[in-house]
Amino acid sequence: MSFLEKEIERKLVKTVKALGGIAPKFVSPGFDGMPDRIVLLPNGKVGFVEVKSQGKKPRTLQAARHNLLRRLGFKVFVLDNENQIKNIIDEIRGERSEVYTT
Q1: What is the pLDDT of residue 102?
Q2: How far are the Cα atoms of 77, 95 from residue 35, in angstroms, in the given order?
Q3: From CA 94, how far away is CA 41, in angstroms rounded?
Q4: If 0-12 CB within 10 Å is exposed, 13-18 middle and 19+ buried, where does residue 67 land?
Q5: Which of 34, 43, 57, 64 is deepest in the core (most CB within 10 A)?
């Protein structure tokens, strides 16, 4: 994980916490490729976030897992710029409909 990726991830966690939620590291032994964080917000709002360094894309297995989660009805986002955090959180809350989900 690069320095920039860690900083973006730290800002996501801090922002979610400030809103009364949590964004624990999501670890899934035996099921590789799952997103880095599961964002749990008040009122039962849930989303998965893959954190990348700016301009980086998910690996093939990660993209497949993201598509699986989306087919199951979950919101999945790829975060590679801290400016995307607000839009992602708004989307998880159901307050916006346009966000980067590459």
Answers
A1: 46
A2: 9, 22
A3: 11
A4: exposed
A5: 34
Tell me if residue 94 falls in helix, strand or coil.
coil
DSSP string, 52-69: --TT----HHHHHHHHHH
More confident residue, 21 or 98: 21
CB 89 within 8 A of CB 19: yes
Q: Where are the domains of the chain?
A: 3-93
Report the chain's mean pLDDT, rounded to a whole number: 92
The position carrying tokens 């790829």 is 78
Distance between CA atoms of residues 58 and 78, nearest Å: 8
Pick the CATH number of 3-93 from 1.10.8.10, 3.40.50.720, 3.40.1350.10, 1.10.3210.10: 3.40.1350.10
